[in-house]
Amino acid sequence: MNYENTAKKILQRVGGKDNVISLVHCMTRLRFVLKDESIVDDEAVKKTKGVMGVMKKAGQYQIIIGNDVANVFAELNKLGNFSNEAPKKEAIKTEKQNLFSRLMDTISGIMAPVIPAIIGAAMIKVLLTLLPMIGVLSTEGDTYNLLSVMGDGAFFFMPVLIAISASKKFGTNMYYAASIALIMLHPNFISLMNNAHEAGETIKFLNIVPVTYASYAYSVIPIILAVWSLKYVERLVDKITPVVTKNFLKPMLIVLIEAPIALIILGPLGAICGNVISTLVYAIHDKLGFIAIGLVAGVYPFVVMAGMHHAFTPIKLGMIASTGFENFICIGELCSNMAQGAASLAVAVKSKNKDFKQIAGSSAFSALFAGITEPALYGVTLRLKRPMLGACIGAAAGGLFGGFFQMKCFGIATPAIVTIVQYVEEGKPQSLLFAALTILLTVVVTFVATILIGFEDIVDEDDELDALETGKEEAVVLLENPIEITSPAEGKLIPIGEVQDPTFAKEILGKGAAIIPEKGVICAPFDGKVDAIFDTGHAVGLISDTGVELLIHIGIDTVNLEGKYFVPKAASGDSIKKGDVLIEFDIDAIQAAGYDVTTPVIVSNSDQYAKVEMCAVGEVTQDNTILTIQ
């Protein structure tokens, strides 16, 4: 890359040096604070050689560069006397004042880590519908009953899973949170409440305070409220208990105070809120019928862009728990996913840009067959704008068709072609036909609409760099001996697409995975050297002895902490051995400051390899392989 040339073009396209208030950079992005963002030519910036994408966030105009960001930053500073001070935290706090946005972010952040467990259970429930239908499994045998328990376990004990996830979001003790959830699901408590409800009686705590009847199995909102309050109960008890009694008195007081709050106040309140939300959502469905499904399908991409899609999960779960199926949101979601894939497929067919054809083609495949729409949504349809209209039209058409034929969903696995079996209704084999026709109609209408509407094709810059870079292109072949990358931290491994940051989720910086850390230590996953470690300690770039370039980015937007809570244990240029401690950080303090600690692990030179594949999601230690490179 010609850093000087790239810097000049970026500066020109953000409005010139007079439009720049300050400029800083993190491990992958230039972070401008501009006087007037409206004069910036976004499309021109995106087309600049070396620019991977653009984001506008927290009062910053962020330009994604990748590993070369420091070099471009240095050239930019030569062009203007810019302030290199990070933006004040007050600007970030202003953005977080929107109550609705904070609520949606909280629910989405809590639900996202739980989704894999729910999907696994949901697919088992789908098998329980499909296998008896084709005569492979009897509904009377022990195998069916055992599989039923496996498929229902994650749903029945949903509050426990939510409690664990919420404890990380709110920065409270995971085991206290899980204990409160287990109290709410204790068989004796359930039996006590059910017996009193059937007898028309009311349970009273201390013979005075009534305990409102509510069922917490399969629920989401009650335990979220309970864990939120637990944070404050912990702080209160910690202040009032003497040091010498903390080991035994503090845990007892926390449970004694929090459990009644959860069972008497917040649990019933959460159950009421959940019922009200569900009632309002499905009232729209009852009022408009199948038309409502078409509308939801058409607008669903914008719901995903707003980060609100995970907020629908509690509603879907509640409906499936009460009726056995969901026939509104899940149908619209399926059509939306298929439409994003079909629109990207149309772009792949029509685009004359070879690189972009590949991007659109792979995005189409992931959306259609795996239900992963972020690459299609952010990398293709939203980027080109017009294909988004084609996707909305096709999704609405499919939603109207599926709604008219009363499609039902019996699980909440990611809607895609490979999970079509979750739309099969027991005793109604024609339901599979309706699901297939809904997908087919959505894909065909979207594809045709996108072709007819057209789009402005992606055109790369035509300058001297084209010839230089073209001469460097080589065919990528599989390695004879795959390279295994072990986890740099202990915690939970999740797909990179679940990270709440489009830059990582869309794999703009490269393929990889992410870890929700449980301990504040980052260790070297291989022998090699430290390529770069940022001053704030929130990210590190490594190069293995085998040539793998790895970026480990602790948390989302944690650069704004300016190094607080991070302690680097290595320096740029250091040789490292597998297991060496690179960075230590305070998870609780970072979460308390309002930041997500999810840690992307990115192979930044993944374009040099034929395959970069993530291993199975779940709990990992530093001995577990998380990525396989070929």
Record keyword descriptors for this entry.
single chain, 630 residues, alpha+beta, four-stranded antiparallel beta sheet, 22 helices, 20 strands, 50% helix, globular
Gist?
The protein is of the alpha+beta class. It has an 8-stranded antiparallel beta sheet with strand order 15-11-12-13-17-9-8-19, with no helix packed on it. The protein has a 4-stranded antiparallel beta sheet with strand order 1-2-4-3. Strands 7-20-18 form a 3-stranded antiparallel beta sheet, with no helix packed on it. The longest helix has 43 residues, at 246-288.
Q: What's the topology here?
A:
Layout: H1 3-13, E1 20-25, E2 29-34, H2 42-47, E3 53-57, E4 60-64, H3 69-79, H4 89-95, H5 99-111, H6 115-133, H7 142-156, H8 158-170, H9 174-184, H10 187-198, E5 203-205, E6 209-211, H11 221-240, H12 246-288, H13 290-305, H14 313-323, H15 329-350, H16 354-370, H17 374-384, H18 386-404, H19 430-453, H20 464-470, E7 483-486, E8 491-495, H21 502-505, E9 511-517, E10 521-523, E11 528-533, E12 539-544, E13 549-553, E14 566-568, E15 575-576, E16 581-585, H22 587-592, E17 599-603, E18 612-614, E19 618-620, E20 625-629
Antiparallel strand pairs: 1-2, 2-4, 3-4, 5-6, 7-20, 8-9, 8-19, 9-17, 10-16, 11-12, 11-15, 12-13, 13-17, 14-16, 18-20
Helix pairs in contact: 1-3, 5-8, 6-7, 8-9, 8-11, 9-11, 9-12, 11-12, 12-13, 12-14, 13-15, 13-18, 15-16, 15-17, 15-18, 15-19, 16-17, 17-18, 18-19
Please, could you describe this protein's structure?
The model is unreliable at 88-97 and 462-474 (pLDDT under 50). The protein is globular and about 80 Å long. Strands 15-11-12-13-17-9-8-19 form an eight-stranded antiparallel β-sheet, with no helix packed on it. It is built from 22 helices and 20 strands. The protein is of the alpha+beta class and 630 residues long. β3 (53-57) and β4 form a beta hairpin.
